[in-house]
Amino acid sequence: MQAKLIDGKAEAANVRAAVAERAAAFSARHGRKPGLAVVLVGNDPASEVYVASKVRLTREAGMESFEHRLPADTAQDDLLALVRRLNADDAVDGILVQLPLPAPLDAGPVILAIDPAKDVDGLHPENAGRLVAGLPGLVPCTPMGAMHLARTVRPRMDGLNAVVIGRSNLVGKPVAQLLLNANATVTMAHSRTQDLAGLCRTADILVAAVGRPGMVRGDWIKPGATVIDVGINRLPPADGQAKGRLVGDVAFDEAVAVAGAITPVPGGVGPMTIAFLLQNTLTAAERRADVMR
Ligand SMILES: Nc1nc(=O)c2c([nH]1)NC[C@@H]1CN(c3ccc(C(=O)N[C@@H](CCC(=O)O)C(=O)O)cc3)C=[N+]21
């Protein structure tokens, strides 16, 4: 058997097209485009690449992009002051501070300083709490993308066993919450879990979000399962190569022979993250406009 490949690039393009339509309607109605501010501190090359593609795709979706680049030695207070200015700027609907921040900057206070109504990463505790409580809020982009891809093959998740490996605030916890909201029976696994392989073999839906290249082996997968690989790991460059290969948390070549459907890396969850960042920006813009009316 060969698993169906879930095409994150194509799905992301669909989501972005829907966002572009709603963005045009927003602009016609409110006389301004939805706006996303991206803050990049320092010059980590991987972050530069992500930010560049966020800026390009934001504009392609008919939204305003505001880029703020700060030197790596920026003081914590100066970063907080920028966040407060963006909070107060009515042209800015969404604020994304690219993570990780260079040492010794502390992301915690920065996330707390972002107006929850503009927190398009969904990382502010108010939004995390809203997700758990079933209240409207902003949901982290990668979990939404992972869920969207899972739904393309499992539109109904009622009673399915879902196992999430990884318990980060950014991915593991919110993705588990979304699966629970979809009536799956959810188990969260992590580095202390006993018999992780055996647990994974119970999963109809397996979400890997640990950041360890190829950790999930083929024999951990229940035949026919839906495998969502959230890991984006860059391997060390092979001889003569400038960049290493991107691989997921799942040993793809093994898994593809067992799973029913699987997301590739690259071309899986990664592109969805940016598509839902744009969707969150639009949602934030629409809600803020409603409140201001
Ligand atoms: N505040 C914040 N929010 C984030 O959402 C955030 C962040 N900080 N810091 C870094 C991570 C990483 N991230 C990715 C987004 C898209 C791809 C993506 O599109 N990847 C392509 C491949 C890109 C390539 O070839 O390098 C793919 O998987 O097909 C990957 C990774 C968002 N992040």
UniProtKB/TrEMBL annotation:
Q: Where is the Tetrahydrofolate dehydrogenase/cyclohydrolase NAD(P)-binding domain?
A: 140-288
Q: Cytoplasm as a keyword?
A: no
Coiled coil stretches, renumbered: none
What InterPro entries is this protein classified in? Aminoacid_DH-like_N_sf, NAD(P)-bd_dom_sf, THF_DH/CycHdrlase, THF_DH/CycHdrlase_cat_dom, THF_DH/CycHdrlase_CS, THF_DH/CycHdrlase_NAD-bd_dom
UniProt keyword annotation of Oxidoreductase present: yes
Q: Name one GO cellular component term.
A: cytosol
Q: Which Pfam families match?
A: THF_DHG_CYH, THF_DHG_CYH_C
Annotated ranges, domain Tetrahydrofolate dehydrogenase/cyclohydrolase catalytic: 6-121
Kindly list the biological process annotations in GO that this record carries: L-histidine biosynthetic process; methionine biosynthetic process; purine nucleotide biosynthetic process; tetrahydrofolate interconversion
Record EC number = 1.5.1.5, 3.5.4.9
Its pathway? One-carbon metabolism; tetrahydrofolate interconversion
Q: Which UniProt keywords apply?
A: Amino-acid biosynthesis, Histidine biosynthesis, Hydrolase, Methionine biosynthesis, Multifunctional enzyme, NADP, One-carbon metabolism, Oxidoreductase, Purine biosynthesis
Assembly: Homodimer.
User: What this chain does, per the record?
Assistant: Catalyzes the oxidation of 5,10-methylenetetrahydrofolate to 5,10-methenyltetrahydrofolate and then the hydrolysis of 5,10-methenyltetrahydrofolate to 10-formyltetrahydrofolate.
The name of this protein is: Bifunctional protein FolD
Q: State the organism of origin.
A: Aureimonas altamirensis
